[in-house]
Structures are given as C-alpha cells and as structure tokens.
Amino acid sequence: MPQTSNPYIGSYDDLRELRLLHYIFSLPHLDSIRNNPQAVINEIDKFSETTELHLMTIGPQKGGMLSKLIAERKPSTVIELGGFVGYSAIMLGDALRAAGGERYFSLELNPVNAAVANLLIDLAGLGDLVTIHIAPSQKTIAKFVKDNVIDHVEFMLIDHWKDRYLPDLWLLESLGLFKPGVTVLAADNCLKPGAPGYLEYVRASPAEKNVQLKEKYTFSEDVLTGTDLVKAIKEDREGVELECVPGDPSYVYETEIFKFEMRPGHFDGVEVTKVVGKE
C-alpha cells in the first residue's frame, strides 16, 4: 500500500483511486465489461499502465499465481488484509467463485478506497460474493471471532500495511485460527518494500519463533493470549489488547517465496506459507 502524508490513510496525494473510478465509468464500452471480472481487471491494468498513475495492485502475474493456488486448494472462504481499489478481490474472487467458494472478505482501513472497491466489485458482478469490512484489520479479525463468522483461516492474502504483517499474524495464531493442512497465507510485497520481521518469523522453527517472541519483541505484561483472549473477545470486554499480542510459536510452517519481475529490473515476491503442523 502507498505511504504518503495524505490525511486519507492509504490514498495517494493525487487521489488516483478516484481518478481510476472516473476512468472506468467513463468508458464508452462500459456495458461490455459489466459482470466480467477479467474485463474490469484489464481496464484497471490499462489505467495503471497508460495514464502514468501507477496503482499498487497485485497485478496479473502475482494475481494469476494466487488464482491458481485458490483453484488447487478450493477454499470456501478467502480473507484479504488490505483491499485498496478491489483489484485482488475481483481477480481472486472470480477464482474463488470458479472453485466453488462462498465468501470473500476484504478488510480495508480507508473508507474512500473501500467505496471505490465496492463500485468496481459490483461492476464486475461479484457483489454477492465479496464483502468489504472497513476498520483496522485486528478489530475486524476480533469481530469475526466474536460473531462466529470464521473458526479458522483457509486462505488469506496479506497485503496491507507492512508493519501490520507480523502483529496480525501473531493475533491469528493466538486466536487459534490456523488449521494444519488447511491454512494458507500469501504475503505480498515481501521483496519490495519488504517485510523482514514477518519473513524471519514464518521461516523460523517453533523453537526459534519462541526465542524471537521472548527476546526480540516487547509485549504488555497483562496482555491476554490464547483461550483467555478468545473468551474476552466473545464477552465483548472493553480495552482488550489486539494490536500487539504474542503469537503461538507452536505452529509449523512450510514457506516459499515466489519472485516476479514486475517491470524490467524491478522484482517483487509473494511469500506463500502453509500451516503443516503444531508442536
């Protein structure tokens, strides 16, 4: 996601997200792309490539790889952290629907981006599948637990603020939302701008993760974790710490980075992590 001084968190200073919306809905062939997810994706790509207003979407290369992974895994629910203008929700939502999936939850902090995404998702004909939740990611995750929306994560795209990658992973671990043999996490932008703390953690053994949690990071002494945290959330207690909760290092991961040349000489990577066990 772009980092600027703009008061609209997650927006570019030139508000190119809104300019994208004007571009799409001014197309003379608008009706021909309606209810056609790939056609909408193509127009977003064309805007980004030809107007000099580059959009930090996952793009066709990374999106294609993730779509194939969804086709293989066939999750019923996909969750993404960071929705931006709806590009990934349209591309991966289309793959999810083709694989027989039922729900795509997009967690987005910026209400302007969410409004743009909602219009484009509806245009693509995926409004019945994709739901956007506007709030900090950790609060929406907690609400999902409180309201019994999910009891485990099947497939998650992590593509929001890079400094939230690791804390949100810890929260998901502590809430017991990972299921060995089922849960897959895909973290974007792991080469540029990079997510070193996240990569160090998911690539570590349970013993190494335990050391990291004890020696590298600082947590509040009275922070709730595990079943105590789940109970506090379900009881809707006030003031429950969600932003920085120690994770559960006992999860065993298999992880691999997939590298892509986004443009000549510029590379990025998606770290795909599978939960394979629990010690």
Account of the 3D structure:
There is one protein chain. The chain is of the alpha/beta class. The chain has a single domain, classed as Rossmann fold. Helix content is 43%, strand content 18%. Strands 3-2-1-4-5-7-6 form a 7-stranded mixed β-sheet. It is globular and about 60 Å long. Residues 1-9 have low confidence and may be disordered.
Which short descriptors sum up this protein?
279 residues, alpha/beta, Rossmann fold
Give a quick rundown of the structure.
With 279 residues, the chain is α/β, with parallel strands linked by helices.
Please render the helix and strand layout as text.
Layout: H1 16-25, H2 30-33, H3 37-50, H4 59-73, E1 77-81, H5 87-98, E2 103-108, H6 111-123, E3 130-134, H7 137-146, E4 155-158, H8 165-174, E5 184-187, H9 190-194, H10 196-202, H11 206-215, H12 226-234, E6 251-263, E7 266-278
Proportion of helical residues: 40-55%
**What is the end-to-end distance?**
34 Å
What oligomerization state is this entry in? Answer: single chain
Structural class: alpha/beta
What can be said about the biggest beta sheet?
7 strands, mixed
CATH fold-level label: Rossmann fold
Q: How would you spell out the order of helices and strands?
A: HHHHEHEHEHEHEHHHHEE
CATH class: Alpha Beta
Percent strand: 15-25%
CATH architecture: 3-Layer(aba) Sandwich
What is the arithmetic mean of pLDDT?
94
